[in-house]
Amino acid sequence: MSRPATFTPPPGTRAHRLRTARGDFAALTGEPAGGPVLGTALLLPGFTGSKEDFIELHAPLSAAGYRTVAVDGRGQYETEGPQDDERPYQQRELALDVLAQVAALQAAGGTNRVHLLGHSLGGLVARSAVIEDPAPFASLTLMSSGPAAVAQPQQERAKLLQDALAALDMAQVWEAIQGLDAPEDAADLRGDGEDLRRRWMRNSPAQLIATAGQLRTEPDRVDELAALGLAVHVLSGERDDTWPVPLLDDMATRLGAERTVVAGAEHSPNTDRPGATAAALAAFWDRHPAA
Question: Domain AB hydrolase-1: where (predicted)?
């Protein structure tokens, strides 16, 4: 999970509902202030995260000419979802949600193919969506998202969280984890920020249980993705405990992908070093136009 510096959208970014054939999704959209729109990017947050994790990317990417649409997935923060049924949160269901979001963006006009970005768990969902149907995508960026299941210590933390959510309510789990490392990132859920607590409380427990299971058991689908021939960008910080950086380097080689390591960043370069991250994203998208 990223820890955004603010939950307040910057000027030029609007909060709205993205209406799709599979339901409505809470979204933050940044529009270029002037000049041509070079492309549209759909941004998927990670485990326990939300659309606000990308809040510092909108302005620099808008300045570079890109429309950015960050969404809460089904059962994440401000997008509703079942509270006690894990079936709607299976990975293929989440991937179909992404394809519906892309179709809605295309139907609204102003975009052809879409640049897709997934952070951490969002990268696994993004990969699944592209494998399901690569046609609507101009490129895929896997941000701090690896080839298969997370590292063993993170698998153990994810299992602890699953067990806690099965036995306790969301408020009790929040209190319990204040002194513990979070399942994806050592600093994830600690702290007393009211915005972070409010976001946590609005997540669906069933969504968290199901997606924690995906982090623990994800198979290696790198060869499936490589076979598509899509432009892929593997971007990470220079340190990552969720998927170690050498593992991400190897995945990029297997994919024939472009590789960016953001200096001074860890698992969430989108919040650790947003300026450098946005510059790398815009440069990659410039090399792979959506038209």
Answer: 42-280
Q: Helix, strand, or coil here: 218?
A: coil
All domains of the chain in start order, with CATH: 13-152+219-287 (3.40.50.1820)
Structure tokens at 90: 């299976």
CA distance 38 to 35: 9
Rounded distance between C-alpha atoms, residue 226 and residue 210, angstroms: 26
Distances (CA, A) of 203 to 27, 108, 185, 228: 15, 28, 18, 33
pLDDT, average across residues 107-114: 85
Contact in structure between 123 and 113 (CB atoms under 8 Å):
no
Q: What is the pLDDT of residues 43-83, one digit of tens each?
A: 999 999 999 999 999 999 999 999 999 999 999 999 999 99
Please name which of 290, 284, 289 lies closest in space to residue 142, comparing C-alpha atoms.
Answer: 284
Give the pLDDT band (50/70/90) at residue 88.
very high
DSSP state of 10: P
Closest to 130 measured CA to CA, from 247, 39, 243, 226: 226
For residue 43, the one-letter residue type is L
Q: Looking at the whole model, is its pTM more than 0.85?
A: yes
Q: Which residue in the block uniquely carries the two structure tokens 């990029």? A: 252
> Region 135-143: what's the mean pLDDT?
98
- Whole-number average pLDDT of the chain: 93
- CA gap 238, 262 in Å, rounded: 6
Sheet holding 258-262, edge to edge: 13-20, 23-30, 66-71, 39-44, 114-119, 137-143, 232-237, 258-262
Query: What is the C-alpha separation between 111 and 277, in angstroms, rounded?
Result: 23
- The pLDDT assigned to 186 comes to 33
